Amino acid sequence: LRAFFSDGADPNHLTAAIRDYLAGLSALGFPVPGEPTATQLLEEAWEHAWRQAFTPRAVGERLLIAPPWEIPSPTDGRRLVVIEPGRAFGTGNHASTLGCLTLLEVCLKRRPAAGALDIGTGTGILAIAAAVLGVPTVTALDTDPDAVTAARGNVVRNGLGGRIDCRLESPEDLLGPPTSLILANLLAHTHRALGAHYGRLSAPGAHLILGGILSEERQEVVAAMAAHEFVHLETFEQEGWASLLLGRACRQAGGPPLIDTWENFT
Length: 266
What we know:
Low-confidence stretches: none
Radius of gyration: 23 Å
Largest sheet: 7 strands, mixed
Number of helices: 7
Mean pLDDT: 90
Distance between the termini: 54 Å
Number of strands: 10
Helix content: 25-40%
Strand content: 15-25%
């Protein structure tokens, strides 16, 4: 257990108080391994130190994700996506975000989308990438006000204010026509809970890209989505995380799904 205290705290007092507490635990019969130690930290600009881990990164064949404090000139025809994380999730460095971005590029390369819905947008990185890759209009939802604020700022940074609508709203409350592409980098249990809404909000033949899934949870998420007529098309796995690309089955009245693989997907 590691705790941080202000530089005005007395380290001798802290360690003495912890020893008293551990002695009480020992008297109650609990094992007490080790001794408490206090160490002074070096003076650093901790609020800015995290930036060292967020550097420009090429993703897939066409994207270049970069922070606003280090914007390179895109090369090899890559499209630049500028992201300031703020207090939201999504820099493109985590395996789940990387997987969603990779599958998004694969998906749009094979078939463009007329519109997209990004559920749990965080920094807005997936919504912005979709727009940069050619999706004309994107709706980005989040229930966290800090995330919506961060996403709106990033939309402006990328000059996409007229194409991306960031809303403080949940998918359960969203009304409107179904879309041809849904993006959701959440967690496996949330995907299972939202399966019916993914189905309600997607048009027949639409694509669904899901992230935030541990590799061992992949099959159960695929099975849960199959109950809502989504067919598994492709998986991207890295560092124990899986991202999924699925297609919404097209059905004739009373008939079987008309798609089951990329080759049959029309």
